[in-house]
């Protein structure tokens, strides 16, 4: 990938949790912090960005112009308004990335472009917060009009903060959202539960946290490096009539696998609902409203 620290300049529109994770992961890896600009409407949230050496504005301004990449990182419900407020600064050369859950590429392309010419240089991404420590996992899907260079650039940006997987379309991105986008929260919940369970059994908070973290880390590393399936690795831990079997019987009774599948289906369904809510007629209305915003 030819992109260098000297040529890449990025704007984040929305400076919340996901932008913070991505920007911190990118700075120093793919571009200097000074090449990152953040548009964040809450001035009270500006100091951490400035402290990292990034520039920040509370309203759209010329700092957006001429950036090679824009990353929309507002909540899905805020995206249409954020696009309408910023698109006057969009250059034909700008690659647009969106990390918003649910909002379909076609919908966003119509908001960014004109009714006759939806924006084409668009890659939808579904990253996750471990990007903050360079251990993210991102699903990406490009509009057919995105160029090979656009795809390479998106790949290089998200690839600099972790694993990337290209998927076919918005439906697949809803599945990615349910797995790796929301997934860190499932893992943190399990981690919290392990720590609480250990403390209930008499370990102190520090011991519980250390052992729980090392267990999750060790088990995932083993699974990643092993040629055997997670099911086989699980069986290796489970001595007949032993302690693990006693614990797994409780998980089975609580229908843990079904519950996880059910939870993921709910996440994917919520992504589809957000897509439906802002697609179709809402997308058409936005097209009319936002056309006037182009320079
Ligand atoms: N958090 C995560 O783990 C992941 C999030 N995502 C996606 O990333 C997006 C952002 O999520 P997250 O970072 O958690 O959300 P946050 O609410 O933390 O961040 C969004 C920020 O953008 C601000 N904002 C709202 N409107 C505008 C605007 N027009 N211009 C500039 N800033 C604006 C918000 O202000 P205010 O709070 O006042 O509204 C807020 O500070 C979502 O679409 C989500 O689906 C994707 C993958 C993982
Ligand atoms: O909860 C959400 O909607 C966002 C998308 C994936 C993770 N967080």
From TrEMBL:
It comes from the Bacteria. Keywords: Amino-acid biosynthesis, Cytoplasm, NADP, Oxidoreductase, Proline biosynthesis. The keyword Ribosomal protein does not apply. It is an enzyme of class 1 (oxidoreductase). SUPFAM superfamilies: 6-phosphogluconate dehydrogenase C-terminal domain-like (SSF48179), NAD(P)-binding Rossmann-fold domains (SSF51735). Pfam families: F420_oxidored, P5CR_dimer. The keyword Cytoplasm applies. Its EC number is 1.5.1.2. NADP(+) binds at residues 13-18, 73-76. GO terms for biological process: L-proline biosynthetic process. Residues 172-274 form the Pyrroline-5-carboxylate reductase dimerisation domain. One of its GO terms (cellular component) is cytoplasm. Catalyzes the reduction of 1-pyrroline-5-carboxylate (PCA) to L-proline. Belongs to the pyrroline-5-carboxylate reductase family. This is Pyrroline-5-carboxylate reductase.
């Amino acid at each position: 990938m030819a992109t260098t620290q000297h040529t890449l300049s990025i704007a984040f529109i929305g400076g919340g949790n996901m932008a913070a994770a991505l920007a911190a992961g990118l700075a120093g890896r793919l571009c200097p912090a000074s090449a990152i600009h953040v548009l964040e409407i809450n001035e009270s949230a500006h100091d951490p960005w400035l402290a990292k050496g990034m520039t920040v504005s509370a309203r759209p301004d010329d700092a957006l112009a001429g950036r090679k990449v824009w990353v929309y990182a507002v909540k899905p419900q805020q995206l249409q308004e954020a696009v309408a407020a910023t698109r006057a600064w969009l250059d034909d050369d700008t690659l647009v990335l969106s990390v918003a859950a649910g909002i379909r590429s076609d919908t966003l392309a119509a908001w960014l472009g004109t009714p006759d010419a939806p924006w084409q240089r668009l890659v939808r991404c579904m990253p996750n917060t471990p990007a903050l420590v360079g251990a993210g996992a991102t699903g990406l899907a490009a509009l057919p009009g995105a160029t090979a260079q656009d795809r390479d650039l998106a790949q290089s940006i998200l690839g600099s903060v972790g694993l990337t997987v290209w998927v076919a379309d918005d439906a697949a991105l809803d599945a990615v959202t349910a797995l790796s986008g929301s997934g860190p929260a499932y893992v943190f919940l399990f981690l919290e539960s392990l720590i609480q369970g250990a403390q209930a059994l008499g370990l102190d908070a520090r011991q519980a946290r250390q052992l729980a973290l090392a267990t999750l880390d060790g088990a995932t590393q083993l699974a990643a490096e092993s040629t055997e399936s997670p099911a086989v690795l699980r069986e290796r831990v489970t001595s007949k009539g032993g302690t693990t079997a006693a614990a797994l019987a409780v998980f089975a009774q609580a229908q843990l696998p079904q519950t996880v599948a059910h939870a993921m289906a709910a996440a994917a369904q919520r992504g589809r609902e957000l897509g439906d809510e802002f697609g179709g007629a809402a997308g058409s209305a936005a097209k009319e409203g936002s056309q006037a915003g182009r320079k």
